[in-house]
Structures are given as C-alpha cells and as structure tokens.
Amino acid sequence: MTSLSPALKQATPVIVDHAKGSWIYGTDGAEYLDFTTGIGVTSTGHCHPDVVDAARDQVGKIIHAQYTTVMHTPLLELTDKLGTVLPDGLDSVFYANSGSEAVEAAIRLARMATGRPNIIVFQGGFHGRTVAAASLTTAGTKFSAGFSPLMAGVHMAPFPYAYRYGLDERAAVEFAVRELDYLFKTRTAPNDTAAFLIEPALGDGGYLPTPPAFLDALRERADRYDIKLIIDEVQAGVGRTGRFWGHQHSAATPDIIVTAKGIASGFPISAIAASTETMSKAWPGSQGGTYGGNAVAAAAGVATLAVIEREGLVENARVRGIQLQAGLKAVQSRFPVIGDVRGIGLMQGIEFTTSDGQPDAETAAAVQKATTEHRLLTLTCGPEGNVVRLIPALVVTEGEISLGVERFEAAVATVTGAVPAGVPA
Ligand code: PMP
To answer: Which residue stretches, if any, does this entry annotate as coiled coil (predicted)?
Structure first.
C-alpha cells in the first residue's frame, strides 16, 4: 500500500471533512477552531461563498490557458485589482504558482536588473523550499540541510530580534544596521549587491514584526547604493498585519514585491510586482511557467480581493489582532513559561522559555499538541522551535478570538499542570 512520505510532518492528527470560515470539521466529527489557515492562505476564511462561486463559475468557462500563449480575462482582472492595492510605481506584474517560485523569480529579476550577483538576507528569514529559495532561508537549518551546495551569492545579516538580544527595539535596530554596514565592508561590497530580501514580519522564523525603522534603513541604503529592496509579502501580505501589505507599517517602499498565499484564498497563485522599468530588464522568455496565472486561481484571486475590500477585512485584522495580542499577554502574565508575546495583526507568536530564559521547544511542541486536544489548531515556528504561532482567518470574529485565547490558555494549563497565578485552585 502506498503511503505519504515519512519525511512529511503533519502538525495535527486532523483529517478534514469540510471547512467554513474559521472552522474545520474533522472526519472524526469534531469541530476545530482553525488558527493555522494553511499559514495564512485561507485569508477570507474557508470556502467563502463569493470565492466558491467565482471558482465554480470559472471552471465552466476555461480552467487553464498558459498566459504566455493566450491571455484570459480573470488574469487581466486580477492584474487590474492588484493595481488598486500595489504601492505607487509598482505597475508591472507577472504570475507564478507558489511563494518559492515567486521569490526565485524576484531574485532573478533583481540580478538581471542590476547586473550584480549578491543577495543579502536576514537571520530567521523564510523564503521557501526549492533549492534557491532554501538557499535564501535562514529560519532553521532543517530547511537547507541536504541541499548543499546551496546557491552562491547569499549573505546573511542579523535581524533586529530585540527579545533574543535582550535589547529594546531601538537598540536592536541600531545593532542590526551597524552589522549590515559592516557586511558591506567585510563580505559583499554595495556594487556587488543586487538586493535585500526581507519579510515585513518573520514568519517561519518566529513571528517577529520587522521594526519599521529597520525597513527605513534598508530603503535608505537601497537608494544610496542602487540595491533592489525585495519585500517578501508571501505570509505577511494581503491584510494579515492590519495593513494591506506588511511593509506599510513603515515608510519604506519596495522595488519588488512577492505575494502568494492569501491572495486567492487557497488557490495556488503567486505574483511578482515591480516597476515597468525594472521589469523591462528581464530577458524575454525568462518569466512564465506552465501553470502560472491559472484561470480558476485568478478568478478566486479577483473574488478574494473584492471580499477583502467589501468586508473591511484589513481593518478587521488590525482590530482582532489587538484583541488577540491583549488576550495572549493576559495569559502570559499567568504562566511564566511564556517568555514573550509579540506579533502584528493576525500574526501572533508566543515564545516559550525555561526559567533561565532559554528557548523551550519541548513546551512549545507540547502546547501545540494540546491545543488540538482543546479543538484549537495552531503551529510552531522559529529556528529553535519554541514559538507557537496563531494565524486566524481575516474574517475571524470577536467571539472566535476570545474562544481561541481561552482554548490556548487551557492547553498551556494542561501542559504545565499549573493552575494559573491569580486563579483560585
Ligand atoms: N516566503 C514566505 C514569507 C513564506 O512564508 C513562504 C511559505 N511559508 C514562502 C515564501 C514559500 O511559499 P511556498 O510554500 O508557496 O513555496
């Protein structure tokens, strides 16, 4: 009998029968509050009726035409719709299927546009699992192990991880900027450097918002040295952080944006956006692929963007994110195993530490497992595996956030065996 690869790791034992909004209904008959959402993919919630209708409609018209051969209307519509949310100046787009592919395409574009070889990435960044994307990823050695030799020309600078360094945010940014400038002197000169590649908030690297001042410093150096600033919005984009794009918490504008995941509520499509001037530096034929810009995925993307706008989901993410973080901080005050709660919008991380402040992956893993028993789906992340991350759908309600926090606390209490401080036994 054939079975799935043993190297695949399923974070929960749940088998889905169907799903709706923030809820997954298992074949075991249980109802799970889904705070994983395919890592931010089901942005408008599971099976939003408008997305379902758009996809169903499209399947009857045309399922696929390679858009480098013949064009179809869903892709033209999606391009128009993206134009309404993309930052000024990023007026040229092309499509692929996954985040990894789009990241690789962005790197290729930056190299072609600058004629320079090197890429600077930031510690804890996650950019995908294909060989080049894994070469750019430093969110855990498990993502690059076994791939060597990795793609050449990738240089890693520190990320301003204030909690880890025991610094306040400002000092962490100063430290990281100083190290970046030092990297220009010690390893990759500015005129050898094609691009910075950074997430607006580290995703798989631990749910750490990138301080706006750090993005501003990258923009300043990008301008000074003609380096392309590539923002990987695959996980943090499309409303998740309470702004449409995660980088919009800072004044820095990217030269290239990469987006995927939430853009089509679960259909595989990714996009790369840049200025026409930058895009025109790509060699003809260097962009495209068999399935990129699939018509059903594009139709789902159009519906997704319309739903996000009509239902005010970016604002919902902001408000529910504040509620979620406040609830988690209250839990933190009752359980000393929680060292840090941080995040932005509906992207919140809970870092577990031992009594002497060391990463505690064992407790994080046990809590993640226990949340499933309490009917809340969560995931871990971080290079040391000691962060539990919560990624609710953008449609999540006030009641669902309260319930999620309640279930999360119950899971922590189950694992620690502790009655929370301040609660009578
Ligand atoms: N970049 C970021 C920021 C991501 O979070 C991910 C996926 N977790 C990727 C790239 C890779 O996307 P995919 O899995 O679709 O290749």
So the answer is: none
List C-alpha distances in Å: 425 to 68, 76, 120.
Answer: 66, 61, 52
Q: Where in the chain is the domain with CATH 3.90.1150.10?
A: 17-34+312-416
Q: How many whole angstroms separate alpha carbon 370 and alpha carbon 279?
A: 48
176 in Cβ contact with 160 (< 8 Å)? yes
Domain 50-311 annotated CATH 3.40.640.10: yes
Reported pTM: 0.97
CA of 234 to the centre of ligand 1 (A): 6
Alpha-carbon distance 327 to 156, whole Å?
A: 35
Amino acid found at 216: D
Tokens of 22: 């923030």
Is the C-beta atom of 38 inside 6 A of ligand 1? Answer: no
What residues have CB less than 8 Å from 397, skipping those under 6 apart? Answer: 22, 320
Residue 262 in contact with ligand 1 by CB distance below 6 A = no
Question: What is the per-residue pLDDT across 111-159, written as a single tens digit (0 to 9) for each?
Answer: 999 999 999 999 999 999 999 999 999 999 999 998 899 999 999 999 9
Homologous superfamily in CATH for domain 17-34+312-416:
Aspartate Aminotransferase, domain 1 (3.90.1150.10)
